[in-house]
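Researcher: Let's try something more involved. This one mixes different molecule types, so please make sure each is placed in the same coordinate frame as the others.
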Amino acid sequence: MISHLGLTKLFWISLAFAYSFVILAAYSILTLPENTFSSDSSEHVMAAVKLSYVRLSLSVVSLVVYPILLFSSLKYTKYVTIALTAWAIAIYIDDHLVLYRIIEYPERGIVVFIQSIRPIFLASLLWMSFELTFTRSKVR
Amino acid sequence: MADKKLNDTEIGAILEAFAESRDVKVDSKNQSRTFKFLIVFINFYVLGFIIIYYFLRYNLLQAVDNGLMTEEFFIVFDGRAQIMFWFLVFINMGAYFNIGFKIISLIALVYLLSSTVDNAVIFSGLVSFADRPYFSMFVASRPIIIIAIAWMGLSHKNGLEGD
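Model: All components are placed in one shared frame. Result:
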């Protein structure tokens, strides 16, 4: 079933990494300790957590819809993957270049770890987008 | 004497070799009036808000609510203004050279949706047409530009099926 799609192993590894990343991020936000908002910059942390809830709810919907789309239409999978990649990069740019004075992520080990592997997550999504775009003829 | 006529396979190979060719620049007459109107509207909208923002930023326009003109907000709006400027550049270049226009429109649309959600979550308490008219107008008009970009991307004719 998987092999007839004609996608490389690297694509599936990237997909698995992306899924793991989002699940880990959801876990870290849903299990925040109560003392997270007691720091001096609690308003900034609160803004970051509120944003994360909105973003993660959309991400979880994507996690559910993506496999269905992948096995039904590669053409639309390509557009959805590009859109999700653009969204992930837009969020990353927003967090680091635009909103960095307004929001502050909690200083929790797992959150720091997620932030540090975020570029790998973006690279995985980029790889998936490029592969779906440039191996189009082979896949079809 | 050898038969020099091309057979079906050879004709097919020649047609396939040129299937991906396209005009470097699309004739603007090929585009619909809707597309032309939308791209002009988007240019005016983005440039209009960037100009208003920089007028406020450098005190060339009297700010109604000075409380909003803090360094933190300037950093946010500076970032937004610069990103939107570059999107405008890429949209216009994509339309002129007919390269990846739909992809650029899709990326711009996704960015706008993301930043609108961010604005709604972080700045929703600041919207007030009486106290902060420029900011409120900026936030309230976001759905219009989102619809305009989506419509523009869909109405663009690039002359190459499946691009």
